[in-house]
UniProtKB/TrEMBL annotation:
<dbReference type="GO" id="GO:0032259">
    <property type="term" value="P:methylation"/>
</dbReference>
<dbReference type="InterPro" id="IPR023467">
    <property type="entry name" value="MeTrfase_MtrH/MtxH"/>
</dbReference>
<keyword id="KW-0489">Methyltransferase</keyword>
<dbReference type="InterPro" id="IPR011005">
    <property type="entry name" value="Dihydropteroate_synth-like_sf"/>
</dbReference>
<protein>
    <submittedName>
        <fullName>Tetrahydromethanopterin S-methyltransferase subunit H</fullName>
        <ecNumber>2.1.1.86</ecNumber>
    </submittedName>
</protein>
<comment type="similarity">
    <text>Belongs to the MtrH family.</text>
</comment>
<keyword id="KW-0808">Transferase</keyword>
<dbReference type="GO" id="GO:0006730">
    <property type="term" value="P:one-carbon metabolic process"/>
</dbReference>
<dbReference type="GO" id="GO:0008168">
    <property type="term" value="F:methyltransferase activity"/>
</dbReference>
<dbReference type="Pfam" id="PF02007">
    <property type="entry name" value="MtrH"/>
</dbReference>
Length: 292
């Protein structure tokens, strides 16, 4: 359990707080909907999907968040501009939760920004994500649409290198303020099991040096090798491995967690609640904390 000499920044997005000293604020849990291969999507290009099932999944997240008092975010990803607009329109009409606009295509993300701006939702959204390789065009687009909250993914080819992640962050920080990005959420980049430990170590370094809210897509440690894990451990064993990878970052004080598909909410929220509640009692006794 760590406490930091560096003042920790707290950013609010859609009424949800990201960041704090050790367990002062609960970690924010981010689940993805309409992801590649999502069974509720019938046509990913046109954005056609089972609305009843999608609403059920979002209601499950809301219920889990309400029961545990652990805040939630819906990460909306899409494969086309048309689909992004349809997905966002549906989600904002179903829930008041904050939203991450998520797409590897800047043109698709642009459609999300356009919708958010026209609907007056910019205070409720964040862009997921920029990297050290993001071009000025992407930053200018964020500035043009007034997107102030952004996830910074510390992607690196050196997946088990902590210093490479910190160097990526320095590159991003040098540009972010220039383009009006006020709320940076740092994703320390997980792609496989070896990278998970490096991402956790980088998370501690980022909070110690910069005081920024930090988290990761820890489930990638297992989901990127889903077939191999299922063949070795079976479906139940795979779920246990994925949940463990998610909890590893929470145990070390992550401010947010991209836990993967929203279907996992029923397992993730109670598990995080248990860990957060236990550590919160320890955090109240300041003498038990390790200062960094």
């Amino acid at each position: 359990m760590f406490t930091y000499k560096t003042q920790q920044k707290v950013f609010e997005i859609g009424g949800v707080k990201f960041g704090s000293q050790a367990f002062e604020n609960p970690p924010v849990l981010v689940g993805t909907v309409f992801y590649h291969g999502h069974k509720i999507v019938s046509d990913p290009r046109k954005g056609e999907f089972d609305k009843a099932k999608a609403e059920e999944l979002i209601r499950n997240v809301e219920e889990a968040s309400s029961k545990t008092r652990v805040p939630a975010v819906i990460d909306v990803t899409a494969e086309s501009s048309e689909a992004m607009a349809k997905y966002l329109e549906f989600v904002v009409n179903v829930t008041k939760l904050p939203i991450f606009i998520d797409s590897p295509s800047i043109d698709v993300a642009k459609a999300g920004f356009q919708f958010a701006k026209e609907a007056g939702l910019l205070e409720r959204v964040a862009y997921n994500s920029i990297t050290a390789k993001s071009k000025d065009e992407e930053y200018r687009l964020l500035q043009e649409y007034g997107v102030k909250a952004v996830v910074a993914l510390l992607y690196t080819d050196r997946v088990i290198d902590v210093d490479a992640r910190l160097k990526a962050l320095e590159t991003i920080l040098s540009k972010a303020s220039t383009y009006g990005i006020e709320k940076l959420l740092i994703d320390t980049f997980v792609i496989d099991i070896p990278s998970l430990s490096a991402a956790c170590r980088a998370m501690i370094e980022v909070k110690a040096r910069y005081g920024l809210p930090v988290g990761m897509g820890a489930h990638n440690a297992v989901s990127s090798q889903k077939k191999a894990f299922k063949e070795r451990f079976g479906a139940e064993g795979y779920k246990a491995c994925e949940l463990t990878s998610n909890l590893m970052s929470i145990a070390l004080g992550a401010d947010f967690l991209l836990y993967g598909p929203v279907e996992a909410a029923k397992e993730v929220f109670p598990a995080v609640y248990t860990m957060y509640t236990a550590y919160r009692y320890l955090a109240r006794r300041k003498e038990n904390l390790i200062q960094l």
